[in-house]
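Hey, can you fold this one?
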Amino acid sequence: MNRVCVGPVPAVGLSRRAFLHRFGLGLGGLALADLLPAAGSGAAVEPVGAGQGGLVAAPDGGLLGGQLHHPARAKRVIYLFMAGGPSQLETFDYKPLLNERNGQELPASVRMGQRLTGMSGNQASLPMAGSAFKFNQHGQAGAWVSELLPHTAGVVDDLCIVRSMYTEAINHDPAITFLQTGSQLSGRPSIGAWVHYGLGSDNANLPAFVVLITPGKVDQPLYARLWGSGFLPSGHQGIQFRSGREAVLYLSNPDGIAPASRRLLLDRLRELHEHAAATLGDAEIDARIGQYEMAYRMQTSVPEVMDVSTEPDPVFERYGPDARKPGSFAANCLLARRLAERGVKFIQLYHQGWDQHGNLPNGIRVQCRETDQASAALVADLKERGLLEDTLVIWGGEFGRTNYSQGKLTATDYGRDHHPRCFSIWMAGGGVKPGLVYGATDEFGYNVAEDGVHVHDFQATLLHLLGVDHERLTYFYQGRRFRLTDVHGRVVRALLT
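Sure. Predicted structure:
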């Protein structure tokens, strides 16, 4: 039987006073929404026992109440999102024919009239561009990996590389929104919000859904709605942890406010909210109570998890020279491992800068140098600690890049436009087959040739690994039942162990 959470009761027949009361509480909720972490859609969860790092486990089973649709292979997800669209032709999809035909026109029989972006659609010529980088085979399966990714090549037997991903969106905003929410239109819940809604939290002192962003990268913008809760209760949104003095904005007490005073304030505020909830019957008020209480507990738990000073030197060396630099991708990968150890269910890392329409050889060299070692280190570190078996790690962007050059092709320089028809991602742990290379593109690297994986197929498979049937995790909103995969999507069972 489908488990469906029905949305809040419509405000029918409310008095003017009750309407203004509800509206006022809603404004307060909006002010807090970006400051306070995800709690369940109900009241705060009480701690029930000691856990990692002195924290406590939370008996919050989400909508499913711990009763999964089928046995889960993964308990948590770490999603390394390479925003901007990394080129598959410079990373995992080796196409020697492009090098042989470098500079020749893309055959019409390969393009088949498919749409192009406005950035290259008006070019008089579409010259095919071979990769400037060498590829070699690695691991027992002989997977082709670029010389740009030597550390990733070193853990390739732990990876499941999918070379046949495809999407429907051709520009950044709809494409990244599609991958992160299941729709090209903004307003839908993010993957992490769906996971928290369905599965709840494993730690009462930390959010179930945490976001880490590499700062200082100039590229396509990232919007908070990519980790938002959409029409789900606001407690399911992702919480961004930042580098610097305050990991979560406005979490600490103001100067002169003692913890005991803060506790007294929250107790009185809870009483007022409980009175309002009993009067108005608005479930969002209960969520707000839970968020206040979570914020209070996070005053201790967040500094503890963010303090990496206890990590030994060999750990920093494994993640690379940037690992001691707060906010760097390497430092965020190390934090992701620490969050996973403490029961955070969905950890999203964003690394921008992969949108290389020109100067691709130099640009992608920098991007890979910033991410390669730390990504591989995360996989190896999780495996060494016995966490990879039930942690699903994902690496990839919102689409791929064209096999032809955008702009002028020279002996040392070229660019690649957006390409939704095919791109590569990899996954590790959490029930996916290690050492597998799945799917293939044609010899020109332009179209999927076999075993295509649509964005909704990927999302359905991710939920399946967490023990969730993507067709049964739904939310009733505006007259219909919504789900992450919209109205289609299939589990790609060939990827599963």
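DSSP finds twelve helices and 18 strands in the chain. Let me know if you want another pass with a different chain boundary.
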